Amino acid sequence: MTRTATLALLAALASTAAYAADPKGTWLNEDKDGIVQITDCGGALCGSVVWVKDPLDPATGKPLTDKKNTDPALRGRPIMGLLIVSGMKQTSTASKWDGRIYSIDDGKTFDGNLIMKSDNEMRVQGCVMLICQGETWTRTTLPSPPAGAAPARPSPSAAPQRAR
User: Fold this and answer.
1) Interval 11-29: pLDDT, tens
2) Which of 6, 10, 36, 119 fits a disulfide with 47 by CB distance 3.0 to 4.6 angstroms?
């Protein structure tokens, strides 16, 4: 009887530990050149780019844009703030969420998943049919802005003009 109770307690603790890993937070991608913030977006998880190591396009000197998007009308969207994880809902597996992943590298959206490997590691995958490819992201904090840097503010001339 004691052995059965001990096994039941261990099983309960193991299932609690599996549910404890939460993908919400800030995640550094595998190349260490971008950070994505995963949050709850109305009952599903979503994630947006909140930091980029090199935020300026070397060719133009302007902020990076979504220039590889398969839709030409979307190629001018800034990378900063871009939604790349959407509609992620937890599956019957405690450590897995299924939804959609947008790949900045090729401008396409895929069915995908987030799989918690530990509290601080998450596998992010895009899938085509049954073949999934991805990378492992590491939980992180946002880097501090450089000393003396002021928050970015739009200039008055950047405000949209009304047609007359």
Assistant:
1) 444 443 444 489 999 999 9
2) 36
Residues 6+ apart with CB under 8 A from 144: none
Rounded CA-CA distance 54/40 in Å is: 27
Domains of the chain: 21-141 (2.40.128.520)
- Kindly report the pTM of this predicted structure: 0.76
SS3 content of the chain, % helix, strand, coil (to 5): 15, 40, 45
Burial of 82: CB neighbours in 10 Å, binned 0-12, 13-18, 19+: buried
One-letter amino acid of 2: T
54-67: pLDDT as tens digits:
999 999 999 999 99
In single-letter form, the type of residue at position 77 comes to: R
Cβ neighbours around 46 below 10 Å, total: 19
Closest-CA residue to 121 (of 142, 138, 140):
138
Residue 29, number of CB atoms within 10 A of its CB: 20
